[in-house]
Amino acid sequence: MRIAILGGTGDLGKGLALRWAERHEITIGSRFREKAEALAQEYLRVARENYGKDYLGKIRGAENGEAAEKAEVAVLTIPGRHVLSLVSGLRGELDNKIVISPVVPLGKEEGCFLWDPRVLTDNGHLSAAELVQARLPRSRVVSALHTVSAATLADLGRRPEADVLVASDDRPSAGIVSSMVEEIPNLRALYAGPLRVSRMTESVTPLLLNLATYAKARNPSVKIAEF
Ligand SMILES: NC(=O)c1ccc[n+]([C@@H]2O[C@H](COP(=O)([O-])OP(=O)(O)OC[C@H]3O[C@@H](n4cnc5c(N)ncnc54)[C@H](OP(=O)(O)O)[C@@H]3O)[C@@H](O)[C@H]2O)c1
Predict the structure, then answer these.
(1) Which atom of ligand 1 is found nearest the CA of 105?
(2) Taking the alpha carbons of 34, 27, 200, 112 in that order, is the dihedral positive or negative?
(3) What is the spatial distance between Cα 215 and Cα 221, in angstroms, rounded to a whole number?
(4) CA dist., res. 8 & res. 209, Å (int)
(5) 225 CA to middle of ligand 1, Å?
């Protein structure tokens, strides 16, 4: 599959690119072509070291618009406060495509992490993924990957067991994204419901950050227990 990782020059983009490069054609998107090309070369070197010298995968760099245009699936690895302006400028390029939102609107009050969609828009009570869907009415937005740490993904030797909560109004697209998630060793995707459920799944990340702070939990993630 052709996957564009928009803002793929950052932490989460690197981790996802390294994991998905084993099987997919990856384009690292950036506001700056040269930056994207340089990091794509760097990720390719790491992928070759890990997947063996016969590895034939493709990782290239491009501006976000070009990356989005050529992709079948685009991932928004962009800080919350910038994501709506970015997608508003890429409506045509993202039409009829799956768009994955791992975006967590993260606020902080008196040292406590909070889910705060006002990071994206002043009058917000909707999730980041719903706001993205409203800006991209002809795309199929899937909300996922909020609780997987970028550092863990980028360390290809690590295979932490965790669940990834997936929300989307388009069930087939959620299925495709779930398969992509489960290509990453030891991750299990769970469909949690329509896109409005993203208000809850996005808010799990600040909860985990608070557990790291107050309960001293080390690298906390999500694993749903079934009794
Ligand atoms: N880090 C994590 O562990 C993690 C885990 C789960 C979910 N997330 C979510 O994933 C998203 C990305 O997180 P991250 O830690 O990878 O972010 P990041 O490293 O801080 O930034 C990612 C990229 O965003 C681009 N960017 C910055 N300002 C921009 C602007 N004004 N317009 C357009 N692009 C801009 C930059 O790319 P260029 O300069 O190359 O354009 C940057 O490399 C966030 O929404 C976060 O909530 C992160």
Answers:
(1) 47
(2) negative
(3) 13
(4) 23
(5) 31
Q: What does 181-196 look like in DSSP terms, one character per residue?
A: HHTSTTEEEEEEESGG
Q: Is 30 in the pocket of ligand 1 (CB under 6 A)?
A: yes
What domains appear along the chain, each with residue ranges and CATH number?
A: 2-214 (3.40.50.720)
pLDDT tens track, the chain, 227 positions: 999 999 999 999 999 999 999 999 999 999 999 999 999 999 999 999 999 877 888 999 999 999 999 999 999 999 999 999 999 999 999 999 999 999 999 999 999 999 999 999 987 789 999 999 999 999 999 999 999 999 999 999 999 899 999 999 999 999 999 999 999 999 999 999 999 999 999 999 999 999 999 999 999 999 999 99
pTM across the whole model = 0.98
Q: How does strand 106-109 pair with strand 58-63?
A: unpaired
Q: 102: closest CA among 38, 149, 171?
A: 149
